[in-house]
Amino acid sequence: MTDNDGSLVSPVPPLPTARALAVGVASVAIVMLPLDLLDPHPRKPRLRRDEDLISQICTSIKARGFDCGRPLTVRQRGNRYEILDGDDRADAARLAALTEVPCMVRNVDDQEAFMLLRVL
Predict the structure, then answer these.
(1) What is the rounded CA–CA span in Å between residue 79 and residue 86?
(2) DSSP strand E in 3-98: where?
(3) Closest CA to 57 of 22, 91, 105, 81
């Protein structure tokens, strides 16, 4: 599949409950996803949960809304999504009583997902 300019586009179809904002190029799409469909990655090297940081992000979200310029990075796993980057922002969004957040959906295998956990 190609875009109008001839570049390759491979949209990642969101679940029916996801509200698409835009379709990215290659193996990336940005969609609004319900927070209740997002799970932390089981191998995320998160040493501890930073409650102060989460509280600061929550305050910012309540004052300015969620920064759509910094979507969470996720991958689809069955009927749910696994967070590769943005755990603190997801926790803060829940604390701010949001129901959905912008997410960049990456189409990656387990090895690529683990590498993203290390660099993001």
Answers:
(1) 19
(2) 19-23, 28-34, 38-40, 72-77, 80-85
(3) 91
Identify the domain containing residue 110 by its residue range: 19-119
Number of domains in the chain: 1
CA distances from 7 to 2, 3, 23, 117 (A): 5, 5, 13, 28
Check if the beta carbon of residue 44 is closer than 8 Å to that of residue 34: no
pTM score of the predicted model: 0.71
Q: Express each pLDDT in 9-64 by its tens digit.
A: 445 544 444 444 444 444 566 899 999 999 988 877 666 778 899 999 999 999 99
Check if the beta carbon of residue 117 is closer than 8 Å to that of residue 59: no
